[in-house]
């Protein structure tokens, strides 16, 4: 039986993110398994976020959400792929992130898998708040993974880099 490859959109809600969104978009556009679409939901941006995203080659829609969740929900109507990876505007994906996570969906012939959660690491650990966030991530996301694996249930799906079946998410 031939497996139909999944299509995936990387969705980046962004609000005045000009100082760091280029790294995020570049990491999305340079995956070893390319996304079918990189979509930036520019939420009430008054800086150069829209210009930067457009120049880098991302599709850009301007939304009037007022929050990350509202921007994501508004942009979800523009997602035409079967999978979506919401990515925080200040996050950077490992170069092989899609290549590593998509086989979970490829192996699921019954379409029961609704989400696959990746590993989250902090980008910086210079200050005490950055180190505290790193500890929070290690505990909340990674210490629970063996339990999640044993039960076949994701209990914590990082909002910055999990892949969802669009139908379930809607």
Lay out the secondary structure.
Layout: E1 8-14, H1 21-29, E2 37-43, H2 49-56, E3 59-63, H3 68-76, E4 83-86, H4 97-101, H5 103-106, E5 115-117, H6 128-143, H7 145-151, E6 162-165, H8 166-169
Parallel strand pairs: 1-2, 1-4, 2-3
Antiparallel strand pairs: 4-6, 5-6
Helix pairs in contact: 1-2
Structure in words:
It is built from 8 helices and 6 strands, in the order E-H-E-H-E-H-E-H-H-E-H-H-E-H. With 170 residues, it is an alpha/beta fold. The chain has a 6-stranded mixed β-sheet, with helices on both faces. The mean pLDDT is 88.
Distance, first to last CA: 29 Å
Uncertain segments: none
Beta fraction = 15-25%
Radius of gyration: 16 Å
Q: How is the largest sheet built, in terms of strand order?
A: 3-2-1-4-6-5
Q: Can you write the helix and strand succession as a string?
A: EHEHEHEHHEHHEH
User: Helical residue percent?
Assistant: 25-40%
How many helices?
8
How would you sum up the global shape? globular
The profile of the biggest β sheet is: 6 strands, mixed
Whole-number mean pLDDT:
88
Number of strands: 6
Structural class: alpha/beta
Quick recap:
This protein is an alpha/beta fold and 170 residues long.
Features:
single chain, 170 residues, alpha/beta, six-stranded mixed β-sheet, globular
